[in-house]
Amino acid sequence: MDSANRLRAAAADVAGLRALTEHPARRAELRAWQAARLERTHADLLASPRYRAATRFFLDELYGSKDFSQRDAELARVIPALVKFLPNSALVAIADAVELDALSERLDLSMVRALQADAQLGDCPIDAPAYARAYRIAGSAPDRQRQIELVEHVGHTLDGLVRHPMIGALLRTMARPAHLAGLGAMQDFLSAGFAVFREMRGAEAFLQILVERETQLMRRLYAGEPEPFTTPL
């Protein structure tokens, strides 16, 4: 599937998932817990002068609890304009990000349903043991692996964009017209990603650390290790 069709499919998918209204308070609690966990897991990257901005971008824009409803609303009406005006490499980054968003929504919903259906977890606040149990009950190991792969792919795509100086000039030129046309969230996402990856000056080591940690943690959770989050990664 080409980038434009992937983007259309992912946009429709995420809009449908966001329209579901099951257990909104529990979903918000889960996202907040996951965001805090990510900050703990990658605290050293957040403290690194070289990797701080890129880590913040990943946690906020790709892997965290940010509200993407504005981006969803834009996508519903501006995909033809994106396809017309953006280079394919930028479309790939957006398609990956929206597919990741849809997948994360689906996984979060599966975990919330597992939390609510399990007699041991239904009325309990989310903590590490409750999260690990719901994670295993929800299953979806291939989707968890795909989630990590999409994070890595977005990173490599953005790292590739910074090697083309014309992309930076294009994003700067597009900034005001994009906001006036209702493309502000898409423009901000690409511009922020371009800026942090250019500042990092090579993303390979950063992406390797991120992917290896999240993969190891996923395997620990599925293996039922008693302390998956506190044992050093």
- The helix-strand sequence is HHHHHHHHHHH
User: How can the largest sheet be summarized?
Assistant: none
Which regions have little confidence, pLDDT < 50, spanning 5+ residues? none
Strand content: under 5%
What number is the mean pLDDT?
83
Q: Rg to the nearest angstrom? A: 18 Å
Annotation field: number of helices: 11
Measured between the Cα atoms of the first and last residue, the distance is: 36 Å
Task: Give me the count of strands.
Answer: 0
What fraction, in percent, of the residue positions are helical? Answer: over 70%
Which structural class do you get from the secondary structure elements? mainly alpha
What overall geometry do the principal axes of the alpha carbons give?
A: globular
Features:
233 residues; mainly alpha; 11 helices
Describe it for me?
The protein has 233 residues and is mostly helical. Helix content is 79%, strand content 0%. It has helices at 3-19, 24-41, 43-47, 52-62, 69-85, 88-117, 128-138, 141-161, 165-180, 184-200, 204-223. Helix 9 (165-180) packs antiparallel against helix 10 (184-200). The longest helix is centred in the middle third of the chain and has 30 residues, at 88-117. The radius of gyration is 18 Å and the shape is globular. The model has no long low-confidence stretch (mean pLDDT 83).
